[in-house]
């Protein structure tokens, strides 16, 4: 037997959950194929336009159909990227549900964990093995997906139909946040499995809690790093593809802020300042430039990993309390 082959409890965990692991590998390969396909689709569409001697700016009538075919192809490739981003965003909840249900709660529910514990395997070592396998597979796979997703998105259809770096699903599909979120999903799954001990309920609880954490983080994400501020006599220009406009509006003569949304109310409720002409009022804009991507990612990942550490600690405490 090879020295690199998994041994002991790790080998047992792999054998017990080989179907789920093979299914995860299959989904990973599908995601990779979709991202590669999107990138190749975008390249093929661009090559088709160049092959007939046309550009997107050409006014030659013979280029109209080629330009239309190009737009249709790039739009379809963009949708593939969006669907992949949605899948990566949902990955932590899916992985957490797998750990909570089939890997832990089912064994607690059926009592099969006693077999392992009766063979000189301590509860702590049993849980470590249950966590080590999905952590290794998930962290490796998610990191690969995030890197490939960034390449496919940034060099493919994003040029003509941009999907902004700060949009929720795009942001959580690149950088280190998807890896940290997957680790949190596993930790929450272990805790839920040990607490609930019912397969379906534990899976549901894990998915719900993981999704709730992701939703809360999306609401506070803009405030995890100091914004840049700019003011002017005219509305500050915003390049949506690189600038995340967090808040914009008007400044009163006293320097108080009036959000732009208040100017969209009914006329009788609209502040008088909203009717002022350019040059008579000062506009402000709080924003994140594209250079804030990594600071935001690192701060959010730190928060997520801290929550994962707390959930893991709680899981071991629950295990020791009930099975000391």
Describe the structure.
- The protein has 324 residues and is an alpha+beta fold.
- It folds into two domains: 10-224 and 293-323, no CATH class; 244-288, no CATH class.
- Helices cover 63% and strands 7% of the residues.
- It has a four-stranded antiparallel sheet, with no helix packed on it.
- The radius of gyration is 25 Å and the shape is flat.
- Mean pLDDT is 83; it is low at 1-6.
Label this structure with key terms:
disordered N terminus; 324 residues
Quick take:
The chain has 324 residues and is α+β, with helices and mostly antiparallel strands. It has helices spanning 8-16, 18-51, 64-110, 113-117, 123-154, 168-171, 177-196, 199-220, 293-323, and strands at 228-232, 244-251, 257-259, 282-288. It folds into 2 domains: 10-224 and 293-323, no CATH class; 244-288, no CATH class.
Sheet/helix structural class? alpha+beta
> What letter string, H or E per element, gives the SSE order?
HHHHHHHHEEEEH
The portion of residues assigned to helices is 55-70%
The biggest beta sheet is recorded as: 4 strands, antiparallel
Number of strands: 4
| Average pLDDT metric | 83
State the end-to-end CA separation: 35 Å
Rg, rounded, reads 25 Å
Number of helices: 9
User: Uncertain segments of ≥5 residues (pLDDT<50)?
Assistant: 1-6
**Domain unit count:** 2
How would the global form be characterised? flat
Biggest sheet, spatial arrangement of strands: 1-4-2-3
- Please indicate the percent range of residues in DSSP E strands (runs of 2 or more): 5-15%
């Amino acid at each position: 037997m090879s020295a690199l082959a998994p041994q002991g409890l790790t080998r047992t965990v792999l054998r017990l959950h080989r179907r789920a692991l093979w299914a995860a590998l299959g989904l990973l390969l599908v995601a990779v194929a979709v991202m590669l396909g999107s990138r190749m689709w975008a390249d093929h569409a661009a090559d088709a336009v160049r092959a007939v001697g046309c550009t997107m700016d050409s006014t030659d009538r013979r280029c109209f159909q080629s330009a239309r075919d190009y737009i249709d192809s790039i739009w379809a490739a963009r949708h593939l990227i969006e669907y992949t981003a949605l899948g990566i965003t949902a990955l932590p909840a899916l992985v957490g549900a797998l750990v909570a249900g089939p890997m832990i709660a089912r064994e607690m529910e059926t009592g099969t964990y006693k077999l392992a514990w009766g063979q000189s395997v301590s509860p702590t070592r049993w849980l470590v093995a249950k966590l080590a396998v999905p952590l290794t597979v998930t962290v490796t796979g998610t990191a690969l997906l995030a890197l490939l997703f960034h390449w496919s998105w940034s060099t493919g259809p994003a040029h003509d139909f941009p999907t902004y770096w700060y949009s929720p699903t795009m942001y959580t599909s690149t950088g280190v946040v998807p890896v940290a979120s997957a680790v949190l999903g596993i930790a929450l799954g272990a805790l839920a499995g040990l607490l609930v001990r019912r397969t379906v309920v534990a899976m549901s609880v894990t998915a719900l809690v993981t999704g709730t954490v992701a939703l809360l983080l999306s609401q506070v994400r803009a405030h995890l790093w100091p914004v840049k501020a700019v003011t002017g006599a005219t509305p500050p220009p915003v390049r949506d593809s690189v600038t995340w406009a967090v808040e914009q509006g008007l400044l009163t003569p006293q320097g108080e802020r009036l959000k732009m949304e208040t100017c969209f109310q009914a006329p009788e409720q609209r502040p008088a300042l909203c009717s002022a002409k350019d040059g008579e009022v000062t506009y402000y804009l709080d924003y994140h430039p594209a250079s804030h991507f990594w600071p935001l990612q690192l701060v959010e990942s730190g928060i997520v990993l801290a929550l994962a550490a707390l959930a893991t600690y709680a899981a071991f405490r629950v295990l020791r309390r009930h099975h000391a």
